[in-house]
Design brief:
With about 170 residues, the chain is mostly helical. It is about 80% helix and about 0% strand. The protein is globular.
Length: about 170
Amino acid sequence: MVLLQLFAAFFKVGLFAIGGAYSFLPLVEKEVVQSHQWLGKPEFLEVVGMVEIFPGAISIKFATYTGYKVAGVPGAVVANVANLLPPVLFMMMASLVYWRYGGMPAVRAALGMVRYAVFAMMIAIAVKLVDTSRLTDLKVLPVVIVAFLLLRLTSVHPAFIIIGAALYGGLLR
């Protein structure tokens, strides 16, 4: 029964996680924290931090963590298959449609507008994930500013920014 619940939960995440990256975190939170209570809110936030450290898609890492916690290796496999199935099928269909209609102004405009919705969702989840009262903390503020500037103005790989922030945090304790 729990494998079926994992499949349904992560199928929904895969089905509605439009925009990728952090835009789907509210969906994951609803499924794994609110609907099924597989993770508590503090654990969810800690896992968000954990999945940022390792390479790969965030949704895969969340499916792996949650599935493994709930039902071991079979749970991790089921959650990942469910998570991957909708985007794989959608991309196969979208590829065919895009090859045929991608040059149409309405299609280009629709895809362009989705970017702004995803942008707004990423800002909302970013504000939700951090204690905004600490943004003026003299230990935190330099990390925010330097990370933003490095990502925006240089070609420094994001992994180095994350590793640097972790090292800095570890040194500060």
